[in-house]
Each structure stands twice: as structure tokens, then as C-alpha cells.
Design a protein that fits this description.
Chain B: It holds the Pfam family MoCoBD_1. The complex is a heterotrimer of chains A (262), B (790) and C (160). Chain B is an alpha+beta fold and 790 residues long. Chain B folds into three domains: 31-137 and 201-254 and 259-292, Alpha-Beta Complex (Aldehyde Oxidoreductase, domain 3), CATH 3.90.1170.50; 295-469 and 635-786, Aldehyde Oxidoreductase, domain 4 (2-Layer Sandwich); 485-631, 2-Layer Sandwich (Aldehyde Oxidoreductase, domain 4). Chain B is 27% helix and 23% strand. Chain C is α+β, with helices and mostly antiparallel strands. Chain C has helices at 22-29, 86-93, 103-116, 122-128, 140-149, and strands at 2-7, 10-15, 48-51, 54-57, 70-72. In chain C, helix 2 (86-93) crosses helix 5 (140-149). The mean pLDDT of chain C is 96. Classes of the chains: A alpha+beta (262), B alpha+beta (790), C alpha+beta (160). Chains in contact: A-B, A-C, B-C. The A-B interface holds A 1-3, 39-40, 173, 176-179, 238-242, 244-245, 248-249, 252 and B 121, 124-125, 128, 287, 652-653, 655, 692-693, 695, 697, 705-706, 709-714, 716, 719, 778-780, 783-784, 789.
């Protein structure tokens, strides 16, 4: 690993200022960044730890919206979201493994936008708002393809706001090695609309399965999507599964998610 | 019997240090003043090295020295320990395997240069400053393409990429062809035995230390056989005589075969420590292990099984391509031949067998023994083709096997593939497994799964393996360049405690516990009085190490021999002390008695007399009580067993869940049942891993696609069930003193076909007439096969 | 940079680079070599330790991030006189280890599990060990050991 300067500010303002240095990077739980740095695939000049900023941590609910601080780790979400938003708590509790969940954060996951990360599927399905030190983004505007987001280099995810659905479910079909989703589907049912967020499957990263959302809005049951097909074009093909297989999984998992949430 | 003697599930004495974090693995060794080596490895599979410029790197902060191939012009290549003779009587093609790449790189991971620096990070920093220019050549990856005329050659100085074309038994060839032509039924199956990576949890580490004062070298290394490394490295690579070279393998964190072989990094750190006059340490990262540890398996096979109208097997013909990788690893040529072809009879009376193996060089990491080594490849073909035959003929797969089993009264049984099984009772293990798995009750469980929308299947496999390798004169005739005996020195101390120095080497098997149980049992003293010393060439007699499920069968036999010598001498001393005749002395529970009298002396009295020989027959016997024995086995041992796997398949996703796994093994006598069962559990997880999860994949350019745990699927806790294991069917080995056969590899040998047979069974029972799915039987592959996309 | 933390109840400090991992700080700086490194992709779990009471992978956190933290390693699990704790003793009793390399991480993971879930089911145990790879035992005896350490009957999970 290349060496770097390390700072641990206690406020968002200090952190943003520290990120003005060229090639500085924010460090949250580090569960993706550290392995990347070990492979020497990332070489930040400075790491700005966000874990010393108390305002970035915590789960709160008000007016039907769950707000999760950017530096809140997965284990905390799994625990604290359990009663108000069990679908999201379940998702958080299935990320990685217990040790990873004690370090990895929602902000880190969202900002990295790994095509197989779990959180983006929920953010897309729920129409979440990604709050940063300088902006608020609709999830659909925030995620812009593999490892690409609307964030500027020195911008920090301070919180993610999820409108809490009436019912929700996350279906994760694990890639057997990494235990990331080979395909993961988050289904969220609201009054008058249904969100279906898909991760792990598409070459363009997380996406909303619009046809299913439309069909499910009128009839929230697995039958509603039985006539739909998912196009295998643009789906990831690798040693763990073809695009056709992933396309098939999207439908199967959506059906299962709907059934479980019904 | 003392409470921790033979047959007791004695708790392991090794455990306390491992459980409290004070085990001493090679990476825990740090020598004063040590420097760190970083290997710069090729990132292309095949190419000519046109320029390696180390000048900038050599000038960097903290860099001690940078080495390239030129620094090793006086050293030999890494030797291959086995020369296979091809079907025409010619020796295999054997390319040089240099320590650092000479002229060409031949696989991703082939080392090009090494930086030695004051810290690992500085060494790696400097390695990035080395300028390497490579003229890329087409990568040779597919084995069948590699042996076509005009194929790019991995080694320019060889005639082709064919290492050897082996036929066995060549004299059977025509008779086998005829039998297959005339058979009532022939079942044919083409399959792949997937390439695997052993992945012991401890990556390899080597620390070299040259002592200028004594002119001695010491190598600390993660090895299953330190004496073998000393011999190969000293005599063939570096030219250091044994008395100047000590090899120490301390606690070793698993090996599964991958730590048998002599690797370039070991020779490098040993040599370099003299050049730079500092200890030199190299610690492999896991990513580096993926491209530098020898891989396993990687066979592509067509097998044909001929049956007569009574469903008796009449002939087997196989045609296998075996991947050697870019160079010949230490025992690579023996794996697809003498550890594979000779097992093709399995547990059956098939009279005619012909095995053809083409070993092929490719631009991939060298392939060598991995848990089972050749025997899983043989078992998988055989047990899959038998299952397919049963389905084609509409007969129960258990009954088809039973009909063809070698019967208990046929032992010793000479197979048509050159080995003679000493004992076995295959009906017994099959019956046991059928009973344990409630085979008869399967239909009810099937219905229960069906009600939940799941497909259920059950699969059987029977296996035999050849362990306890091996008779030295025999393997010498077959091309081995080493003997395969084992050694032990039993040193009895004056107060009666004992140090046993064994040439075997534990890397997780618990020898310190098991071996002590054997000696304790023989002498009748408490096992706590006995220490097992292993893993250091300066302490133990020349021994060949631990692999091939040989430690107790061969190393244990040496120890028994040495202990018997001790007992013989101790009896003479006891006879002197009690003024009786040697032949009247009996040893029981650590007491020597004169038969028919109440006269006795204790073990400790005799051992003290041996070292304080005031009252001692000095005129006829030397003082002291220390004996060494070497044991060279007269045959292999032949563990066997029946494995039954029950799976559920998710029809929507193709996901396979192993619901139950039963293993009924005949290991002969068992010293420590707890440890034996643990060995089986571990083997089963690796076999289930091979069947469902693990796959080492190269793309057409020779890049390793499954190059980390992010893509190489290791079995985890949730991937395997609780196992039902049994070893109560015992036919003791007839030719070693303990009657033991070996248990280390069985689980990995018998389980892959059982799992795949179960999956195919589940599919057939639900109307999917799928002939075969290659391992790993991943959800995607099952789904594709069910949907006609296979 | 200087970093100070409490390791196994003892205040320790050392000079580190930014890039020094907690695992290196422990293994090289503190000579606590029970924490093992089995991979470089945060998958194997051999390096699992507890930081402020939570299990984490010491290969995936920088030492400088842990200024003032309380760290427990495998060396801090047994009693000062070397007596094994209940989990360690159960691993020995049920043969939950072979080569011993993954064992420190397994014990630390098991301890974290039992702290939050004193009576886990077999599937909870297996699920909790998703981030700890063992190549030797096939997990069978690890599951039994953790069951036993939790005071539950081992027969409930044993297939044999």
C-alpha cells in the first residue's frame, strides 16, 4: 500500500476543507477502500476519516422518513432500523459478514456505488434522498453507472433519507465467493406506488425495474409480473453466471420479494 | 491400555498454543536484522523478456539489492521428483524451471525479479520502479489446442507442449478396445475435473538465514516435508551439502499438498541471505498465493464403461488430458499417472482397463498434488460413469455397484492396473452408509421436498484410494527420484520420559497427540511422558514428510519399529536387573515382570539403569536407550468407503443445498477416532467445495479470472451440513504393524461424485433428463442445464 | 505518527505510518502474533479481533484510526494463568481446530456471537461465521464447539 497522510476531523466542515488537498479521499468504514489500497489500485495522498464526526452517525425517524447518517455502520442499521423499516434492517444485516458490518457504513457503500452493493437497490426502490455537505440528490440522479455517482471529489455523503414503505423486502442471491449479491432485489410498497431496485445484475449498475414497478402498482402480487421478462442484454456475464441467468434471477427474486412483503 | 493409548479420542496437546495465539508459524519468526523480499511477477501469461531494467529500483530508499535471473546463472532449476515414461518407452519432456524467469515468462505470476529492502512496503515500492518489457506471445491455455500441430510452444526447446503420452496398461489396449466393441452396453461420459487451488489458510512464507560464522544456512519454511526441501534445494538447486543446510518447518497452517513442493521462493531467500548477509524473509500475500502456489486437478476426460448383459463391468477405457501448467512442479507428473491410472479399477472386478493420459504444458501456474492427488480424479470419473450407466440401464445405482464389487474372499486382489489390494469389505461400508443415510426412506423425504416446491436427490459414490506411499523399490521403477520410507528416532531419557523424532510432519493432523498415543500404548506409560518432535532437519532423522495419507501408516510404522527396538533392549536391561532370562520378561503398563513370578521393575528403573549403568551388562550391551528405525512399506494401503449425499435443488434458481452427507469409511485400525473424524469432515468440505463452489478459471489470454476470494469460492460454514461419519467397518491393513490405512484424503476423494450424482438424481426425478453437469455445479450451471442452455 | 490504544487491558503506544494496518501494529509492533493474515481482500477472518467490544477484521482498519480504542486479541482471551476460557476449552474438547491458523479469528468471532446471542441456533452460528474461512475442519466441530460453549446440548446439531 502507498503511504498517505491521515486526518480525523470532528466536523463536516473540517472534513470538507481537508478534502481540498489533491488526491485526498474520505475514509469511512474502509471495508472497500482498504482492500483496494492494498492492491495498490487506489493511492490517495490523504485520508480524511469521517468516523470522528458524531453528526454523521445514527438512525432517526420522523414524518415517515428514516434518516441514516452517512457514517452509520451496517450493524447499527440492522439493529436500529429493525422496528421501523425491517426490510432495510434485513438488508443491512446481510451485508458482508459481522466484522464488515461493524465497520462498513451506508455512506461508504452509497458513495462507492459498487455494481453489486446492497444499499443502492434500496435507495433506488425507495426513492431515497442522498444528502451531502452541499446538496441533496434523488437516488435516481445520484447513481450514474459502475462506481460512478453525482458526488464531487471533495463531497461527503452526510445522510441518506428513506421514505419508509408500507411493506418491503430484500432478496439477496449471493455470489458464492464474495458473498456480494450476484443479483439482489429490493421491493418497496408505498400507497400508490411500488419500487423495485435491482443490484448486481446490470452492467450499468443499480437500476429500477420500471415494468415491474408499473405492474405491481396495480396488483401487488407475484402474479402481476408473471408475464414480464427481463432483457438479458446489458446484464453482467461472468464466471458466476451469464446475463441470461441474472435476468432470470431478477424476475425470480422480485416475485419472491413481493410475496414476502405481501 | 493407558487412558490415552490406541483407540482413545485423546484431546490434542497442540490445541492450547493455537487457542491462545502462541502457535509459532513461519511468519511469526523474525530474525534480527532481517530484510524483506518482494517478487515482481509477470502480469502476462506468455512472452519474451526483452528488457528488465533494475537500475532505478536499486537506487531507491531502503533497497538492499535487486535480483534478476542473471544472479542465478550458477544455480540449478527447481527439480522435478518424478520422471514418467511414455507409452513408447521414452522419458517425459522435462523443461528447466528456473528460480527467476530466464528469457521468457510462462504464466501470470512467473517471477521476473526480486527486491530486497528494509521493509515489505519499501520492497514493493521499489519493485514498481523496475522496468520490464515483454514481447507478448499467444497464451497456450486450452489443453487440446496446445497439443495440436503448429501450436505455440510454452518451452521453445521442447518438441511440443506434450509432456508425455502415457498408456496404462499398454498391453491391455487392444483387448480393451475389443471388449468395448463387443459389449452389451457401453456408457460414455465426458467430464472436467475442475482446477482447484489448495488454499491452506496460512499463505507460504520463507525465511533464509546464512550464518557467516559457521557457514551454515537455515531455511524456515511452510513445508509438509522439510527433509525433502533440504535434499532438493541443497543438492539440485543451490549446491549446499546437507550438513550445512538446516530446514525448519515450525507450525504449519495447513497444506493439502500445496506445501509438499519445493518452490522458487525457498531457494531464493536461502541464497540471497548469503549474498546480502542478512536474514531474508518473504511472506506471500493471498493474491500472490493464487498465482504462485501449485494448483490441483485440471483433467479433461472421456471415460467409457462396458457392461455385459448381466450388468457386470467388462472394460474401462479412459482418455485424459492433464494440465501440468508452465513447469513441472515437484511431483506433478506422478499425479495423473501413478496416483490416478492405478486406481481406475475402483472397488470393482472390471477385468480390462486402459488409461491414456496426455500431460500438457500450458501458460498457467504449475499443477501438482492437491488433497487426494489423482485419486479424486479417478474416483470421480468412475463413480459418475457408473451412476450414468445405472440410469441408462434402469437399475439402482447401489445395486449396480454391489454386483461388481470385489468380494471379501477375493483379497488379496490383483487389479488389471498393477496394484494388489490387501483387504477390504465394500458391501459392509455400502450397507453402513445406506443404513446411516436412511436410503430406504428417501421417497418420503422426496415427497416432503416436493411439497415445498423443491427437487430432491440422493447420490452414492464408493471410493478406494492408495495411501501410505510407498514401497521405494516399486516407485523407483515407476520413475520416482526419491525413496518413500519414513523414519523415527525414539530417545528414552534417564527418568523414563521419551522424545520421539519423526520424519513425518504435522500441518494440522495432530501428530503430536496421535503419535504419542501409539508409543504410550506400546510401553504402557502415560502419553504426557512422551513428546513428538518434528519439522526440523537438525533434530529428526531423514524422513519424507506428510502427504498421501501416509503419516501413521508409514511414519507410525517407523515409530513402532523403533519403539520395539527400545522395548527389546529395555527387556534385556530388566532381565539383568531381575537376574532372569530375556525371554521371560514381559512389559505391561510400564512394568517389566518375570513371567510366572512376582518379580518386577518399573519402566523408570530400567531407563535409569540404561543411563546410570552401575548395575548393567556393560560387557554385552551399550548403555543408553535410543533407537532409530526406517520403515519402507511393502505395499500401498487401500482405504475405501461409501459416501451418500442428499441435496435439494431450487427449481427456480438452480441453487443446490447439501442437506445431508454420510461417510462410511474403512480406514483399518484407528488410533484417535476424534482426529480421524475431523480429517474426514475437512475432506468432505473440500470435496463439496470442489463439487459446488470452487473453480480456478483462466481466460483465453491466460489471466487468472478467479484470482482472489472475491471470485474463488471457498466453502464457508453455511455451505456445508453437519456430517454423519462412521469408521466402524474395519479390515485392518495386513502389511503394517498398526493395521492402519490412512484417512487424510478420503473425504475429498469420495465426496465430489456423491454430490454430483445427487444433483443429477434430483433433476432426473423431476423430469429433467440431464446427462451431466461439470463441477462446480453452480446455480447458474444447474439452471442452464434444466433449461436446455447447458 | 504515534498511536496509543489499550490492547488486552494494557496501554500501549507505537510509531506507525498512516498505512500501518491494525494487524501489522499488533503482529509486528506488539509481537502479538496470534492475529493471523490469511488473505488480502478482507474475506478470511483469520485476523479478527475485538475493537471496543465489537469484532472487526484487523487487516481492514488502520492503526491510526484506533487512537484511544480498546482492542482485544486472541492473546487476551485466556485467564492470566493460561486457563482457557469457555470458548477456547470447547474448541479443544470438540476438536474445533486442526492447523490452528484460522482458530484465533474463529474464537474471536464466536465470542462476539455469544455476547449478543447467548444461545445461538446452528444456523445462527453458521451465518455468523460467514466471514471466517476454515480449510481444515469442514466447520462441523467448530459448530459443535460453539454450541457447547453456549451451554447448549451438542447432540442437537450432531448428524452422526
Amino acid at each position: 500500500m502507498y503511504n498517505f497522510e491521515f486526518v480525523k476531523p470532528s466536523s463536516v466542515e473540517e472534513a470538507v476543507a481537508a478534502l481540498k488537498t489533491e488526491d485526498a479521499k474520505p475514509l469511512s468504514g474502509g471495508q472497500t477502500l482498504l482492500p483496494t489500497m492494498k492492491q495498490r489500485l487506489a493511492s490517495p495522498s490523504k485520508l480524511v476519516s469521517l468516523l470522528g464526526i458524531d453528526s454523521l452517525k445514527g438512525v432517526s425517524v420522523s414524518d415517515g422518513v428514516m434518516t441514516i447518517g452517512g457514517a452509520t455502520n451496517h450493524a447499527t442499521v440492522a439493529k436500529e432500523a429493525a422496528s421501523a423499516f425491517p426490510g432495510l434492517a434485513y438488508l443491512a444485516g446481510k451485508i458482508g459478514d459481522p466484522a464488515v458490518r461493524n465497520r462498513g457504513t451506508i455512506g461508504g457503500s452509497i458513495a462507492n456505488n459498487d455494481p453489486a452493493a446492497c444499499y443502492p437497490s434500496a435507495a433506488i426502490a425507495c426513492g431515497a434522498t442522498i444528502v451531502t455537505d452541499r446538496n441533496e440528490y434523488a437516488a435516481s440522479d445520484f447513481f450514474q453507472g459502475l462506481f460512478t455517482t453525482a458526488l464531487e471529489e471533495d463531497e461527503i455523503v452526510t445522510a441518506v433519507k428513506f421514505p419508509i414503505p408500507e411493506a418491503s423486502n430484500y432478496q439477496k442471491f449471493e455470489q458464492p465467493a464474495s458473498r456480494f449479491p450476484l443479483t439482489g432485489v429490493f421491493v418497496a410498497k408505498y400507497a400508490g406506488r411500488v419500487g423495485v431496485g435491482v443490484t448486481g445484475a446490470s452492467e450499468d449498475g443499480v437500476f429500477a425495474w420500471a415494468e415491474a414497478e408499473a405492474a405491481l402498482a396495480g396488483n401487488f402480487s407475484p402474479d402481476a409480473i408473471s408475464g414480464l421478462t427481463v432483457d438479458a442484454d446489458g446484464m453482467i456475464s461472468d464466471l458466476h453466471g451469464t446475463g441470461a441467468y441474472r435476468a432470470h434471477l431478477v424476475k425470480v427474486l422480485t416475485g419472491r420479494g413481493v410475496k414476502a412483503a405481501s | 491400555m493407558p487412558k490415552d493409548g490406541i483407540g482413545a479420542s485423546t484431546k490434542r496437546r497442540e490445541d492450547k498454543r493455537f487457542l491462545t495465539g502462541v502457535g509459532r508459524y513461519t511468519d511469526d519468526i523474525n530474525l534480527r536484522g532481517q530484510a524483506y523480499a518482494y517478487f515482481l511477477r509477470s502480469d502476462v501469461a506468455h512472452g519474451r523478456l526483452t528488457n528488465v531494467d533494475i537500475s532505478a529500483a536499486a537506487e531507491m530508499e531502503g533497497v538492499v539489492k535487486v535480483f534478476t535471473a542473471a544472479d542465478f546463472s550458477a544455480a540449478g532449476g527447481l527439480p522435478c521428483g518424478w520422471c514418467v515414461t511414455d507409452r513408447h518407452g521414452n522419458p517425459m519432456q522435462e523443461p528447466k524451471h528456473p528460480i527467476l524467469a530466464e528469457g521468457k515468462v510462462r504464466h501470470v505470476g512467473d517471477p521476473i525479479a526480486v527486491v530486497i529492502a528494509d521493509s515489505p512496503e519499501l520492497a514493493r515500492d521499489a519493485a514498481e520502479a523496475i522496468v520490464v518489457e515483454i514481447e507478448e506471445l499467444p497464451a497456450v491455455i486450452n489443453m487440446k489446442d496446445a497439443v495440436k500441430d503448429g501450436a505455440t510452444k510454452v518451452h521453445d526447446d521442447l518438441t511440443s507442449n506434450l509432456c508425455y503420452d502415457w498408456g496404462f496398461v499398454e498391453d491391455n489396449r487392444e483387448a480393451v478396445d475389443k471388449a468395448i466393441k463387443e459389449a452389451a452396453h457401453v456408457t460414455t461420459l465426458e467430464l472436467v475435473n475442475n482446477r482447484l487451488i489448495a488454499n491452506p489458510m496460512e499463505p507460504r512464507v520463507a525465511v533464509g538465514h546464512y550464518d557467516r560464522a559457521s557457514d551454515d544456512y537455515t531455511l524456515y519454511t511452510t513445508s509438509q516435508n522439510p527433509h525433502v526441501i533440504r535434499l532438493l534445494m541443497g543438492a539440485f538447486v543451490l549446491g549446499i551439502p546437507e550438513h550445512k543446510l538446516r530446514v525448519v518447518a515450525p507450525d504449519v497452517g495447513g497444506g493439502f499438498g500445496s506445501k509438499i513442493f519445493h518452490y522458487a521462493e525457498e531457494a531464493f531467500v536461502t541464497y540471497a541471505s548469503k549474498v546480502v548477509n542478512r536474514p531474508v524473509k518473504w511472506t506471500s500475500s493471498r493474491s500472490e498465493a493464487f498465482v504462485s502456489d501449485a494448483h490441483g486437478r485440471d483433467h479433461v476426460t472421456k471415460i467409457e464403461l462396458a457392461l455385459d448383459e448381466n450388468h457386470k463391468f467388462t472394460a474401462i477405457r479412459t482418455d485424459t488430458y492433464a494440465n501440468m501448467g508452465a513447469y513441472l512442479s515437484t511431483f506433478a507428473p506422478s499425479v495423473p499417472t501413478w496416483l490416478h491410472g492405478v486406481l481406475m479399477a475402483g472397488n470393482y472386478t472390471t477385468p480390462l482397463i486402459y488409461v491414456n493420459v496426455k500431460a500438457v504444458f500450458t501458460n498457467t501456474v504449475p499443477v501438482d498434488a492437491y488433497r487426494g492427488a489423482g485419486r479424486p480424479e479417478a474416483t470421480y470419473q468412475l463413480e459418475r460413469v457408473i451412476d450414468k450407466a445405472a440410469r441408462e440401464l434402469g437399475v439402482d445405482p447401489a445395486e449396480l455397484r454391489r454386483k461388481n464389487f470385489i468380494q471379501p474372499d477375493q483379497f488379496p486382489y490383483a487389479t488389471p492396473v498393477a496394484v494388489e489390494y490387501d483387504t477390504g469389505n465394500y458391501d459392509a461400508t455400502l450397507d453402513k452408509a445406506l443404513e446411516m443415510s436412511d436410503y430406504a426412506g428417501f421417497d418420503a423425504r422426496l415427497a416432503e421436498s416436493k411439497a415445498r416446491g423443491k427437487l430432491r436427490g440422493i447420490g452414492i459414490a464408493h471410493y478406494i484410494e492408495a495411501c501410505g506411499i510407498a514401497p521405494s523399490n516399486l516407485v523407483g521403477q515407476l520413475g520416482a527420484r526419491a525413496g518413500l520410507y519414513e523414519s523415527a528416532t525414539v530417545r528414552v531419557n534417564a527418568t523414563g520420559s521419551i522424545s520421539v523424532m519423526t520424519g513425518s510432519h504435522s500441518h494440522g493432523q495432530g501428530h503430536e497427540t496421535t503419535f504419542a498415543q501409539v508409543v504410550a500404548d506400546m510401553i504402557g506409560i502415560d502419553a504426557s511422558q512422551i513428546d513428538i518432535v518434528h519439522g526440523d532437519t537438525s533434530k529428526t532423522p531423514m524422513g519424507m514428510g506428510t502427504y498421501g495419507s501416509r503419516s501413521l501408516a508409514v511414519g507410525g510404522s517407523a515409530m513402532v519399529k523403533a519403539t520395539n527396538k527400545i522395548i527389546d533392549k529395555a527387556k534385556k536391561i530388566a532381565a539383568h536387573l531381575m537376574e532372569a532370562s530375556d525371554s521371560d520378561i514381559e512389559l505391561k503398563d510400564g512394568q517389566f515382570t518375570v513371567a510366572g513370578t512376582d518379580k518386577s521393575v518399573a519402566w523408570g528403573d530400567v531407563t535409569l539403569a540404561a543411563y546410570v549403568p552401575h548395575n548393567y551388562p556393560l560387557e554385552s550391551m551399550e548403555p543408553g536407550l535410543e533407537e532409530t528405525a526406517f520403515y519402507d512399506p511393502s505395499n500401498f494401503t487401500y482405504p475405501s468407503g461409501a459416501y451418500i449425499c442428499e441435496v435439494e435443488v431450487d427449481p427456480e434458481t438452480g441453487e443446490v443445498e447439501v442437506l445431508a452427507f454420510t461417510a462410511a469409511d474403512d480406514f483399518g485400525n484407528v488410533v484417535n477416532p476424534m482426529i480421524v473424524e475431523g480429517q474426514v469432515h475437512g475432506g468432505l468440505a473440500q470435496g463439496i467445495g470442489q463439487a459446488l463452489l470452487e473453480n480456478c478459471v483462466y481466460d483465453e489470454n491466460g489471466q487468472l479470472v478467479s484470482g482472489s476470494y472475491m471470485d474463488y469460492a471457498m466453502p464457508r460454514a453455511a455451505d456445508v451440513p453437519m456430517f454423519a461419519v462412521d469408521h466402524s467397518c474395519v479390515t485392518p491393513c495386513t502389511h503394517n504393524p498398526l493395521g492402519v490405512k490412512g484417512c487424510g484424503e478420503a473425504g475429498a476423494i469420495g465426496s465430489p461424485p456423491a454430490v454430483v450424482n445427487a444433483v443429477i438424481d434430483a433433476l432426473h426425478r423431476s423430469g429433467h433428463k440431464v446427462g451431466h453437469i461439470d463441477m462446480p455445479v453452480s446455480p447458474a450451471r444447474v439452471w442452464a442445464a434444466m433449461n436446455g442452455q447447458g | 505518527m504515534k498511536v496509543t490504544m489499550k490492547v488486552n487491558g494494557r496501554q500501549v503506544s507505537g510509531e506507525v505510518e498512516g498505512r500501518t494496518l491494525l494487524s501489522s501494529f499488533l503482529r509486528e509492533g506488539q509481537e502479538l502474533t496470534g492475529t493471523h493474515i490469511g488473505c488480502d481482500t478482507s474475506q478470511c477472518g483469520a485476523c479478527t479481533v475485538h475493537v471496543n467490544g465489537k469484532q472487526i477484521k484487523s487487516c481492514s482498519v488502520f492503526a491510526v484510526e484506533l487512537e484511544g480504542a480498546e482492542v482485544t486479541t486472541i492473546e487476551g482471551m485466556a485467564a492470566p494463568d493460561g486457563t482457557l476460557n469457555a470458548i477456547q476449552a470447547a474448541f479443544q474438547e470438540y476438536h474445533g481446530l486442526q492447523c490452528g491458523f484460522c482458530t484465533p479469528g474463529m474464537v474471536m468471532a464466536a465470542a462476539a456471537l455469544l455476547k449478543d446471542t447467548p444461545k445461538p441456533t446452528e444456523s445462527q452460528i453458521r451465518e455468523h461465521l460467514q466471514g471466517n474461512i476454515c480449510r481444515c475442519t469442514g466447520y462441523h466441530n467448530i459448530v459443535k464447539a460453539i454450541m457447547a460453549a453456549s451451554g447448549q446440548p451438542v447432540a442437537a446439531v450432531a448428524a452422526e
